[in-house]
Amino acid sequence: MKHWLVRTAMAWLIALPASAATLHIPMNFQYLALDGKEVKTSFLVHTDELDIGEGPHKIALRYNDLVADRFSDMDRKVRSKPFVIAFVAKAGENYYLDGSGELYNKKPDDYAKRPEVQVVDSNKRPVEITTAYTDAEEATIFKALIGENPHVDAEDAAIAATAVATTTAVASAPTTAPAAATAPAAAAVPAVAATAAQPKAATGQSDRAQEMLQYWWEQADEKTRKEFLSWAVGQL
Hints:
By secondary structure, this protein is an alpha+beta fold. The chain is about 35% helix and about 25% strand. Strands 2, 3, 5, 6, 7 and 10 form a six-stranded antiparallel β-sheet that branches. Strands 4-1-8-9 form a four-stranded mixed β-sheet, with no helix packed on it. It starts with a helix and ends with a helix.
């Protein structure tokens, strides 16, 4: 039995692509798109790892956190507009993204307006990245109900922003460089989003219901979550 397990494990390891790399993110960030493809996530389980291949990549993310509300006992959600990072991945490497800057963990509302991030490799060495920001707006539930959504959908904008030729998106602008060095890349993304992603004709009631369910899940305590999961399983 042991020999069989060893052989199976070795075969699995050999079958893994040699060019695979992995990007890790903390709980307060969310994947949206990778190289023009939407990253499917679940509101029940946070996706903190994303497998990427060797070479240049553009990854759309969002800052998404719960912070204590000064006027009530409930936490409130702070979300940024989608932003895009671009960097070149090495085969077999693990990369770790985290927030940076003076506003991170101190003033979440201000930080969400223009999130600053950094990426390090498995040896904690800084990785050269460029960061670009979108101007996509979130469609409110009220606008969805009355059928009015004049803005580009945020998720569509994120996907479109990562779909541009990846090899031209990675500029020689390290995270330690002055902010002005990344300005050209930052300015380019809104234009891409406006031309490549058109507003959705209809987002669907199910999407909005999921957003509300996710909100209340994040607000609930552990006991309430367990009770809800027990009820949900019984409905299957």
